[in-house]
Amino acid sequence: MYTVRHMPSDLHENINQPSSARALRQSLKETQANDTHLRLYLNFGQQLFAHGWNISAASSLLHSLCNLLSAQHAILAIENSGKLVIFTQIGQTLPVGSRIPMMGILAMMLKNPVQFTVHENKSTQLWTHADLQHHECLVPIALGQHGKGVIAFSGKKLVLNNAEIEALNAVSGLIALAISQHQGPARSEADLSILETLTPREREIFALLPAGLSNNQLGLKLGIASGTAKIHVERILNKLGVKDRTQAAVKAVELGYKS
After folding, report:
1. Are 212 and 249 within 8 A, CB to CB?
2. Exposed/middle/buried for 17, CB within 10 Å: 0-12, 13-18, 19+?
3. Strand order of the sheet with strand 146-155?
4. CA–CA separation, 60 vs 188, rounded Å?
5. Angle of the 55-69 helix axis to the 162-183 helix axis, nearest 10
6. Which tens digits make up the pLDDT trace of 117-166?
């Protein structure tokens, strides 16, 4: 019986060929993936350089990410006054402009300091296709570990590998930086610490204070009782260390919330 050592050299080489072929295919796949990621970063960077952060740049990026991940539906939502507002979307999702309460998994993802974790199969109410075979993937958008929003994907073949997760991590940071530049000067650490003391509902009410709404009007706008709105206002005043609603409204304007 021949052992591998005693076989003819050409036969020995043939035995090793399948392994070499697999390694070559894997190497080619990795090279193609790296090229795809590089093109994605370059295209997004060129969009920002030419036009800045806008719907067009966000939509182009979202389409590129869907192609990369084989996703059929996607959302890019930005945090605003304690809620997520859909900035752009693809497929069967809630419409642009929809305000989504930051509760459950969404609140956990964007709780400061934000940690980059891809959350899968969480069954959030972002989609209108109601297809149980679709997998869901949620990615936090953050800058300096402060939450800025969420990217969400849905698709039947949505299973992410390590390279795709790393790409999403990098893109998340770029988006957060673009959003921050678009929104104006970054808030100071002191300002951020003030906001972090407020609950999501209190941030909603805090953002509305510059409009001069009464407790009854706040309750009607947010779907809560006027007495509940009054309690929230009192807690906000206490946490901010101010004497009245006017001073709280001034602080809200300083932090970028306007009527």
Report:
1. yes
2. exposed
3. 99-101, 83-90, 73-80, 146-155, 135-143, 119-120
4. 31
5. 170
6. 998 876 778 888 877 788 899 999 999 888 999 999 999 888 888 889 99
